[in-house]
Amino acid sequence: MFHIINANNNPTNYIKIEEIYKLRHKVFVDTLGWVKGIKGLEIDQFDNLAPDHLAYIDDDGDVLACVRFLPTTGPYMLKNTFTKLLAGKRPPKSSKMFETSRFCVDFEKILTKRSTPIKAVTVGLLGAMIEYGMYHGITEIITVTDTKLELMARRSQWAHTRFTDPQPIGKATAVTIRGEV
User: Fold this and answer.
1) Under 8 Å CB-to-CB from 111, ≥6 apart: which residues?
2) Which of 3, 31, 83, 87 has its CA 20 to 30 A from that of 111?
């Protein structure tokens, strides 16, 4: 089941936030090599802005997937971290556009548990992102992702376009995509 988790909306969410940071470490530090982690967690300056995280939590209470939402009216990753992916373009700024970042799925855990198909979690997280956007009056989402997840977004028929061309970052090829909610 998908849950909106924010460290400010419930003190008991701290445990789930920590699980999200561990999953992010597994994906963005260990697998993609995009950033450095600390003590098995991937936390950055944008987490200090109290963003919402959308997380898939299974019946055992484990976080199997997550994504973070940041408004483009303030600091966000494309604008402040992945500036080379802007390719000379101005970073988008709109109260109706949010950046999703740190989209990740724990494929190993899903395969080990065999409780939910990977596709259901991955495509479900994308669908839940769009639903979150609709509920919050967001009309567009921009995201930096690797080209493998871009392919998943295309296969799921999410209406999006490339904002910039792919470029190597860490161990993967990153691309910025902009999509409708």
Assistant:
1) 118
2) 3
Return the percent helix, strand and coil in the chain, to nearest 5.
Answer: 40, 30, 35
Q: Which two tokens stand for residue 95?
A: 């109260």
Q: Give the tokens for residue 38.
A: 């600390």
Residue 104 contacts residue 66 (beta carbons within 8 Å): yes
> Hey, what are 180's tokens?
């409708």
For residue 11, what pLDDT band results from cuts at 50, 70 and 90?
low
Look at residue 139 and tell me whether its pLDDT is greater than 80: yes
CA pair distance 32, 10, nearest whole angstrom: 31
SS3 category, 93: coil
Mean pLDDT of the region 49-77: 95
Does 156 score more than 80 pLDDT?
yes
What is the Cα Rg of the chain in Å? Answer: 15
- The full 3-state SS of 124-161, as one line of letters, equals HHHHHHHHHHHHCCCCEEEEEEEHHHHHHHHHCCCCEE
- Rounded distance between C-alpha atoms, residue 33 and residue 59, angstroms: 30
The pTM for the full model equals: 0.91
pLDDT at 157 over 70: yes
7 pLDDT higher than 80: no
Would you say the C-alpha torsion 117, 121, 122, 128 has a positive or negative sign?
positive
